[in-house]
């Protein structure tokens, strides 16, 4: 109750000073994690017609402990707004269907609602951007990040086999089932309000990809985005390896997969590839190869 009162006072104060947008965001980048969203956050913030909050991942709509139906405490995240046409928020966890953090900060599955349905309740006219990456590369990248953070002690092969046997400790495979998550988005928002970009295409031609995004957001496509440099360029697994606590993570992860696990993974993720291919009208021949980022 006290927190809500403080948030309400803060919001009223910022609002009186003209530092907040009237309604909140009108576009969201909802994923996927490990697919360039950090670089996208920094690049979008360069455009004079776009306002991005200081916090990249606000995690407002995916956490029961933070979300309020009256949006209490949300708009102050956008302090500093100065009249830009587009106001964005980037939180990759919003992509996941029927998954939310409960009040104790634990991910719950098979919820009746999810971040996207919550967002739609408040912002039905918002535009949604989703960056999708080769799921075979992405699942390895997700594993490496969490391994170096000390969150996954198991070998990669054990994680895959465990999840296929029904474990929900990490749900790396489920989080790469683009068919499940993207179909939820498209059943919530009209297809015309959803822009799916392919991470690998963006890497090959950032200029063309950013022009497509600008067109989708109905802002000037003549603006030249500057590729982000240094630590902002890539949120790579190498960074997490460099920062690892050697008392917890003593060696590099074992990324080997047994033939059985490899076949299970290919079979389980094929519907995701097929769904994306059908949606964008282009066959995604994502290879089963290991990447390092």
List the helices and strands and how they pair.
Layout: H1 2-16, E1 27-29, H2 37-44, E2 50-51, E3 86-90, E4 99-101, E5 107-109, H3 115-122, E6 127-132, H4 135-148, H5 156-164, H6 178-188, E7 194-198, H7 199-204, H8 206-217, H9 237-243, H10 259-280
Give a short overview.
This protein is α/β, with parallel strands linked by helices. The protein has a domain of 201 residues: P-loop containing nucleotide triphosphate hydrolases (Rossmann fold, 3-Layer(aba) Sandwich), CATH 3.40.50.
What would you say this structure looks like, in words?
The protein has 293 residues and is α/β, with parallel strands linked by helices. It has a domain at 2-145 and 178-234: Rossmann fold (3-Layer(aba) Sandwich), CATH 3.40.50.300. 38% of the residues lie in helices and 9% in strands. The strands form 2 sheets. A 5-stranded parallel sheet has the order 2-3-1-6-7, sandwiched between helices. A two-stranded antiparallel sheet has the order 4-5. Helix 4 (135-148) runs parallel beside helix 9 and helix 6 packs parallel to helix 10 (259-280). The longest helix has 22 residues, at 259-280. It is globular, with a radius of gyration of 19 Å. The relative contact order is 0.16. Residues 230-234 have low confidence and may be disordered.
